[in-house]
Structures are given as structure tokens and as C-alpha cells.
Design goal:
By secondary structure, the protein is an alpha+beta fold. The protein folds into two domains: 130 residues, 60s Ribosomal Protein L30, Chain: A, CATH 3.30.1330.10; 157 residues, Alpha-Beta Complex (Phosphoribosyl-aminoimidazole Synthetase, Chain A, domain 2), CATH 3.90.650. Helices cover 31% and strands 26% of the residues. Helix 3 runs parallel beside helix 4.
Length: 330
């Protein structure tokens, strides 16, 4: 039987229903200075700060940390933590400024913390942000191992926020390459590796110079160069492709996406799909499949923008649906 994200324990539809149940209770809104200027559900939450909007994102590394534990190598997951937050800010054209982290751990460990800090520092340098604080909680009765998450603060002029509302049919879609699985879908990844009988220490069949675990710990790409494109081109929409794969595109527009020339997925995706017997549409609904970030802009600017960013024109905006080479994703 083909594996799916839901069968691995993560049902995105159920998760969305649970989130909806939570957010329906969040009815109080501050007024005046500091009032919210976006609804819950976009990539970042924005509040009024005069001429500017302050933006907040919050995300974590997820079960990728379990692979780090198996490999006893924790020096990349800090990059993932910052990337998952910073990329969400970039998906609204917002400059990241500062970051705080949260580590919940069953037992304080000097070496784990040192390596986490190493990754956080590298992620901060790439993102041009300062880590201004954080919190570590030792919770032996609650946590088995540790969890790593964080919050990023950004700022943008209110008239420069990119929400996707200007997207229209005919716009070009540019895809920027990912570095691999990034930091989503690891419940399914781990289920596939387990059921296929592999160890994370086994050589990666597509490149025997590395192990499966090392391949899966490749850190999430930080797309800080998107800010340069925002200042140069008439960008209509931006999307960070995370959990839910291409379904994330619904977050920025009611229109559809016809991906006729997708980026080539890295070998890790082919390996996971084959070993798990995962259907093609399920892969695109779970993983980034080689495309970690999407830019939507007028067709006349697409060639120049794709060259500048090292991406590729992968398709265009259509009236409805999400398709990849004719395959209906939804």
C-alpha cells in the first residue's frame, strides 16, 4: 500500500481543521498603534507601527531533530530553525531583523546546545539578523529528547507588503531551487526509511560518498536574495513551499498554477518516492520537490528576474487548480 503523509501520522486536512478550531477563539484585537493589519493565516502576522508594519513569524524544526539525534550531529538544525521563520517573512517581502529561539529539552547537554548554537549563528549571518535572546526549558516529564523552535521579527513599509492580492491570470511563475527536503514532511520521511529497512548511517544509494542521514540533514535554504528582487521587480506574489507542498500556493491567491516546466527534484525525492511507493501527486502535496520558493510577477519581467535569482520560469497563473505537467495536484 502506497504511503502517504496522513498514514505517517500527519493529516494536513485534520491539522487545518484543528488550527481553524483554535483561531476561531482568537477574537480580541488591539486597536490603534500596534493593531493587527493582517488576518491569521498568511505567512506572517503584521501589526501597525506607523509608516511601517512589524511582522512576526514562528516555526520550528519538527521531527528532523530525531534524525539529528540518530546521527549525533546537531550543527545544521539551527539553520533550519532560522530558515523556516525568515523564509516566511520573505514570502511577504519583509526584511528580517531579529530572532529569539526556544529549546525544550529533557536534559541539558553541553554538546547538543553548542552545536545548535553553531547552526543558529550561521543562519543568522546568512539572514543578516541578530539573535537577541531566547529560552531554554528543561522538561524531563514532558519532552523526550528536545524540540527547537523560534520567532523572527521583521519590518516593512506598509505600502510594500506583498500579500498576493495583485496576482492575475497570465502572470509568470518562477521557481527557486531548494536544497532538498528542507524541514517538512519528516514524519513521512522517517516512516519510509524505517519500513524500507534502512539506517540513517547507510550510504545514500544516489551518492555513496554521503549517508542517508547526512543527505536528510542538509539545511533549509535561506532565500534572503528575494529582498533584492522585491526592490527591483513588480512582484505580485511570493510563496515559501513548506509542509503541504504545492498546496501552500493557495495561501497567496484564489487563482491556479499551471506548472508546465517544474524544477528537477533532487535525487533524495526520487529515492523516497520509490522506497515508499508514494504517488506522484502525494509527493507534490507533501514536499517541495526541488522548488523551495515561488515568485509570481508579470511575464515581461520574468526572464530578467529568474536570471538574477538563479531560478527558472516554471509556469503561469491560470484561473483555477494546481497542475504539474498536467497532473492535477488539486
Amino acid at each position: 500500500m502506497a504511503l502517504t503523509y496522513a498514514k505517517s501520522g500527519v493529516d494536513i486536512q485534520q491539522e487545518n481543521r484543528a488550527i481553524s478550531a483554535l483561531t476561531k477563539q482568537l477574537t480580541y484585537k488591539r486597536r490603534g498603534f500596534g493593531a493587527p493589519i493582517t488576518d491569521v493565516g498568511h505567512y506572517a502576522g503584521l501589526i501597525d507601527f506607523g509608516e511601517y508594519a512589524l511582522a512576526l513569524t514562528m516555526d520550528g524544526v519538527g521531527s528532523k531533530v530525531l534524525i539529528a539525534n540518530e546521527m549525533k550531529r546537531w550543527n545544521t538544525i539551527g539553520i533550519d530553525c532560522i530558515a523556516m521563520n525568515v523564509n516566511d517573512l520573505l514570502a511577504m517581502g519583509i526584511e528580517p531583523l531579529a530572532f529569539v529561539d526556544y529549546i525544550a529539552i529533557s536534559e541539558a547537554d553541553d554538546e547538543i546546545m553548542r552545536q545548535i548554537g553553531e547552526g543558529l549563528e550561521k543562519g543568522a549571518r546568512i539572514s543578516r539578523i541578530t539573535i537577541v535572546g531566547g529560552e531554554t526549558a528543561t522538561l524531563p516529564d514532558i519532552v523526550n529528547g528536545f524540540d527547537l523552535a523560534g520567532t523572527c521579527l521583521g519590518m516593512v513599509k506598509k505600502d510594500r507588503v506583498i500579500t498576493g492580492e495583485r496576482i492575475e491570470p497570465g502572470d509568470a511563475v518562477i521557481g527557486l531551487p531548494s536544497t532538498g527536503v528542507h524541514s517538512n514532511g519528516y514524519s513521512l520521511v522517517r516512516r519510509i526509511i524505517k519500513e524500507a529497512g534502512y539506517s540513517y548511517l547507510n550510504p545514500f544509494p544516489c551518492n555513496t560518498d554521503t549517508t542517508i542521514g547526512d543527505e536528510l540533514l542538509t539545511p533549509t535554504r535561506i532565500y534572503i536574495e528575494v529582498l533584492d528582487a522585491v526592490n527591483r521587480f513588480d512582484i505580485h506574489g511570493l510563496a515559501h513551499i513548506t509542509g503541504g507542498g504545492l498546496m501552500k500556493l493557495h495561501r497567496i491567491t484564489r487563482y491556479g498554477f499551471d506548472i508546465t516546466d517544474p524544477l528537477e527534484p533532487q535525487p533524495i525525492f526520487t529515492f523516497l518516492q520509490q522506497e515508499g511507493g508514494v504517488e506522484e501527486h502525494e509527493m507534490y502535496k507533501t514536499f517541495n520537490m526541488g522548488m523551495g520558493f515561488v515568485i509570481v510577477l508579470p511575464e515581461r519581467e520574468a526572464d530578467q528576474a529568474s536570471r538574477m535569482l538563479g531560478g527558472k520560469i516554471v509556469g503561469k497563473i491560470v484561473e483555477e487548480g494546481i497542475r504539474v505537467r498536467g497532473l492535477e495536484i488539486e
